[in-house]
Amino acid sequence: xxxxxxxxxxxAMALSLAACGGTPAxxxxxxxxxxxxxxxxxxxxxxxxKEEIKVGVIHLSDPAEGSGYTYTHDQxxxxxxxxxxxxxxxxxxxxxxxxxxxxxxxxxxxxxxEEGCNIIFATSWGYMDTCEALAEEFPEVIFSHGTGYKSxxxxxxxxxxxxxxxxxxxxxxxxxxxxxxxIGYVAAMGQENGEVTSGCNAFAMGVxxxxxxxQVYVSVTNSWFDPEGEKQAAERLIAEGCDVIGQHCDTPNPxxxxxxxxxxxxxxxxxxxxxxxxxxxxSVMWDWSVYYTKAVQNVIDGTWVPGEKIDNxxxxxxxxxxxxxxxxxxxxxxxxIAAVEEVQAKIVSGEWDVFDxxxxxxxxxxxxxxxxxxxxxxxxxxxxxxxxx
Length: 389
Hints:
By secondary structure, the chain is of the alpha/beta class. It has ten helices and 15 strands. The strands form three sheets. The protein has a seven-stranded mixed β-sheet with strand order 12-10-9-8-6-7-15, with helices on both faces. The chain has a six-stranded parallel β-sheet with strand order 2-1-3-4-5-11, with helices on both faces. 54% of the residues are buried.
């Protein structure tokens, strides 16, 4: 029922969309290459004809890896392309663009512009400042940045979602599954990063809701993409006695490490059961096609025009952007699934959400906090059952 509901919600969103449609990098003008220039949405009537629009996407790694963050974003681009009926030559991909290298990011984005892209999706946190700078230089192009917080209100926005909703649900599974009472969490960034920390806290709150005595242990890699570091972090947690390994990092390596050591895990981004069928209980997932379809359709329709107001996007389980993957029924009982589905129904209906309306959330230093879901960026503290290795 859970999976069917997610599919129906995502389908409904796609149908409605079809009806309506860090240091900043140098901003020097790229040399002319004779390539096509992007058509200005503002200078056309009714947007851009579907057959003329061009979409750029900047990827942190290679989607061919077949799992994890970049793969999931590219699946969203493919879904958008199929939903809107775009041809392959209307999609420009720049892969393995290091988000710590501002010059490389600028080169990738300007190449997309030179190839005629009208809208560019920059999928990693570290692309944000370069997008901000180039948006000022190229006002005729829309820059849409994933996971960040900056925007200029005209041709540069950000998009993300309430991924902590699915993380809370996965915490319920972890809390019910653990036998040692110790649950691990591989985090890409530390306490200062609100995106990662809010998700970890939601996971820990889900654990506590069904297992108040359990503790969550965090191991930080300090990198969005570090295959070897992610494996080592998981192994540190397993050595600590953790028998369920959650993650906010790119690769399935924490899940494969869990399988190698005979413990369990919760994947992230895509369904990681295929990577570690003997360990992965479920996966916290995105369906980025929900947003990509909406954004590109709006550009086609002329309802999203540079120079006019461009809204930021913060999706959730109700609109199908955030998904909890299928349960591994070889490892997860019917009772565990029922416990998750009861809470999930409240989240999807809007009856309840993880942070909204919670007046006091105690951190691991005994300080009380309040946090609205849309304000995840201010979460720079850990929930009371969280420990840092």
